[in-house]
Amino acid sequence: MPELGSGLYYVLSCSDGGFYGLSNVSNVDVFYYRASESSGNMDSDILDEFSDLKYLEIDGGVRTLAFVPPIPSLKILSLIYTSITYLSNNALSNISRILMSLSLTFSEIEVISEEAFAGLTDLLHLDLSHNRMEKVYTSRHLTNLQSLDLSFNFIRSVSSSDFSGFHSLLQLNLDGNIISSLSYLEFPSSGFALSIKANPLQNISWLGKSIRRLQSLELSGTLLLAVSKNTFTNTYFDSLKITNCGKLRLVEAQAFINITVTNLTISNNPSLEFIDSAAFKDIHSIKHLDLSSNRLHLIPEELSLLPLLKHISVLNNSLYCDCNMNWMFTPKVKIIIESANSSALCAAGDETRRAQSICLPSVVFRSPNATVIDEGSSALLRCKVGGVPPPEVVWLYGNYPIPSGTTIKTVNGDLEISQTRPSYAGVYKCVATNAEGIVSETFYLGVKKDNARIIILKTGKDYVEVSWRTSNPLKRYKAILIDTRNNNQTSYAIKQFTRSRHSQSGYIISGLKSGTTYRVCLAYEDQEWADSEKCETFTTSESSSVTPRGITDYSLYGIIIATIISILFICIIVCVCITSRNYASRRQKQLREGVVSESSYGLMTSSFSQRSGISALYDNPGTSFTPVSHMSRSGSYYKYRRAGGSSAHTPTTPTVCFVPELQINGEPEMVRILKRTMSDPQLLSSPTEIC
Q: Per-residue pLDDT tens for 608-636?
């Protein structure tokens, strides 16, 4: 907390309504206010009376920052248990631009705007712990910030870009978040203190590549399973703590390589059983080592070789009290071992075993009895042993020693198997031997067979069409082509072994020689040679069309052609539909303009001459009417247009059609038709049919 300066300060502390009624508070320097649940929100007008206030702390009763009026002299502001959810632009500079310390804890802050801290260039300490933030909100304005507390939020991941604006940052607290992994981190200054306790971290291998100098690092309460090789490399620490990690089981060899650390604490890890003898050999600057309250069976004798080590704490472990502990009691070891006596470290009756100079080998850490993995994966069978003299470890498969090779090898007593095959499944035995005797442990390794295989679909003069089948789509594969004449092989990378959605058959490998026998195999991405079960043999033909080189998804061209044809077909259908619609529109327009449909009701008589037929209509008013729809359609009709009155065509026998109910300008259509017929020479000169 920054100091307010020297001198005497007037401090006023109030709770609930106890402040009301006070006067002459303009000279108050420090003001505390605590609101109870029953008091509700504090009246913001109260703060208007403080003109020289330097320190303000309000515990409860604040809903928004607008509640706090501008106080130009304010240097320290602490708002606890507020209802603030969002920090808007310039929200804090409106209160005071000379703030040195700001605390907004136990609130509900979720989002912080980019300009929320604008103008606060003097801010040194920022506490945003116990809020609801899911990410780190950086700010280009906090260039002088030295301490940032983001503990107990909901942050899932962090990266270097999150802290790019904090050029002077010295302390970062990320405790109690839900960070499961960390990407590359590069902190702006040396002497940096980082705390990431109580996070679900499972892997901290990033530390060896990102952190170069830290004043202190705390990794307590994480989900680490092991401190693996090269975890800490070329790094400087004043203090390093790995504590309260409930799943931590071992510290591997070369976990600390060329690092500088003064105080190392690996304690209170209830599952930690083994620390490799080569784990600390590259820590030459260590002075204090705390290994207390673990489940260790042996303390590595190699610790006695560290030149600056002065103190070791090994209390509350499960140590084997035999001659493996003798090195801690020899006069040449000038290390203070906390409570290093038989009553504190060993159970009663173990003094005899500890006094011996030779110890029977003992297995102090091992893998589970049974391990089952997928074909192509890596397997690690651990067998850590102790004894005096140090035992020699040999691995057996069945009753036969396992020779070390490229895929199977023994490293620090452990058996490492890469690219496992079904034939590797079975019972393995770890045998440790020294002058005192032999001890062995048995392990079972199961391998789930991968039924992936290559399928030959078609061959040509210079190409082969292949497909594949797999039961594990998560595996990454490649195709290996082998020329059987000289055993030369060429690898074709397949990014992921799943069938292409553009191809229903497979892929083409081209550029081959005609009349040549090849073997094409399916292999894992990091595998040099494939199993014979995943290989097929084929021979290219003497004549065929040449295909492009490489692996080609040939069905893509067929899909393109089919797509073009489909588009053309759709265009034709659209054109037909448009044409039909235009024709129908014209037809409807003709009907609207006066064309009388063939289904209209009309009258019809037999053929008549120009006078006798017409006069018959006058002389025989009882002539029957017949609907047009009941007449034969084989005849020729005269279609009368109202608008022009002209016929669409001139039939051999003119036919007059009309609707008896229709009236135009008050005159029946029948009368109009008869008048027109009498006045039309053509109608009068030829027989006419009236319908």
A: 344 444 444 444 444 444 444 344 333 43
Do residues 340 and 417 both lie within one domain?
no
Domain that holds residue 255: 180-355
Residue 218's nearest CA partner among 204, 233, 234 is 204
Q: Are residues 108 and 152 in the same domain?
A: yes
Q: Which of 153, 176, 199 is the last residue of a domain?
A: 176
Q: Name every residue whose Cβ is closer than 8 Å to that of residue 433 and which is 6 or more positions away in sequence.
A: 361, 391, 392, 394
Residue 195 pairs in a beta bridge with 173, 218
- The answer to the question of residue 46 being in a domain is yes
Q: What span, in angstroms and rounded, lies between the C-alpha atoms of 427 and 411?
A: 19
In 3D space, the residue among 172, 167, 213 whose CA is nearest the CA of residue 195 turns out to be 172
Q: What is the pLDDT of residues 470-500, one digit of tens each?
A: 766 667 777 788 887 777 767 665 443 334 3
Of the residues 448, 466, 486, the one at which a domain ends:
448
Cα-Cα-Cα-Cα dihedral of 385, 386, 391, 392, to 10°? 20
Residue with tokens 């009882």: 622
CATH code of the domain in which 137 resides: 3.80.10.10
Secondary structure letter of residue 608 according to DSSP: B
Task: Please check whether residues 199 and 308 belong to one and the same domain.
Answer: yes
Sheet holding 507-510, edge to edge: 453-459, 463-469, 507-510, 550-552
Q: How many residues does the chain have?
A: 691
Count of the separate structural domains present in the chain: 5
Question: How far is it, in rounded angstroms, from Cα 300 to Cα 279?
Answer: 9
Domain CATH code at residue 520: 2.60.40.10
- Exposure letters 614-625 (e unless 16+ CB within 10 A, then b): beebeeeeeeee
Report which DSSP code applies to 152.
Answer: S
Contact indicator for 74, 97 with CB cutoff of 8 Å:
no
In a domain, 597, yes or no: no
Residues 30 and 160 in one domain: yes
Residue type, 365: F
pLDDT reading at 370 higher than 80: yes
Long-range contacts, 592-596 (Cβ 8 Å, 24+):
593/641, 593/642, 593/643, 594/641, 594/642, 594/643, 595/639, 595/641, 596/639, 596/640, 596/657, 596/658, 596/659
